[in-house]
Design goal:
The protein is built from nine helices and six strands; from the N terminus they run βαααααβαβααβαββ. Helices cover 45% and strands 12% of the residues. The chain folds into two domains: 134 residues, Rossmann fold; 86 residues, Orthogonal Bundle (DNA polymerase, domain 1), CATH 1.10.150. Helix 1 crosses helix 2 and helix 2 packs antiparallel against helix 3. The longest helix has 20 residues. It is an alpha/beta fold and 230 residues long. The structure holds magnesium ion. The site of magnesium ion has 7 residues, from loops.
Length: 230
Amino acid sequence: MSTYEHIFFDLDHTLWDFSANCAETLTDLYERHQLHRLDIPLPEFIIHYRQINDSMWDDLHKGKVTIEEVRNHRFANTFKLFGLAASHVPEGLDEQFISLCPTKSNVFPHTHVVLDYLSEKYVLHILTNGFRETQRTKLQSAKLDHYFEHVIHADESGYMKPDKRMFDYALKTAGIQTHQCIMIGDDLYADVLGAKNVGMDHVFVNRLGTKHTEILTYEIDCLSTLKTFL
Ligand SMILES: [Mg+2]
């Protein structure tokens, strides 16, 4: 039986199905801007955008690029893969993506059932590298907002996971100590190593079966497994 009292959840790719929501958004924008006219096939557009965005977010977590660089270049870099110059990117595409994507509501299987169960036993919080308005919209769109006592963002704390100061800020905000909580997230670097840095127990949500050599507190491939040990 665990002795945890609080749970910190990552949001994107852990509860909120970023890939499904991203694909829906890109499909909407593809149709709005009639990108088939540029000979961009929709499935490849989605795949390439996702690869570029993921890799730029990895670089962001490692401090290699800024969020402005991610936003300014992710569509241009995607278009480049189709042999198209940045000038072909429709005006305001990134802004449209940012405002539309958080309104999508796909979550991973068992999300609401597991949160119903956990919220009876623990105080739940979100610890996210996303930004305040975006994450608030996602939580509301997916009907998740009522589960969480604190939603701690990068722009509020001034730091991003895996920075120890982000976790320290979260603990201070919740008024708790490390041994009282566990971090649950899909990102081995930001969530798991971040938690390890402050000596916090953690759950790696490894849906894709990513190979690694880390010693973990728990590893799961489906949220429903949380009920077996929490
Ligand atoms: Mg995540």
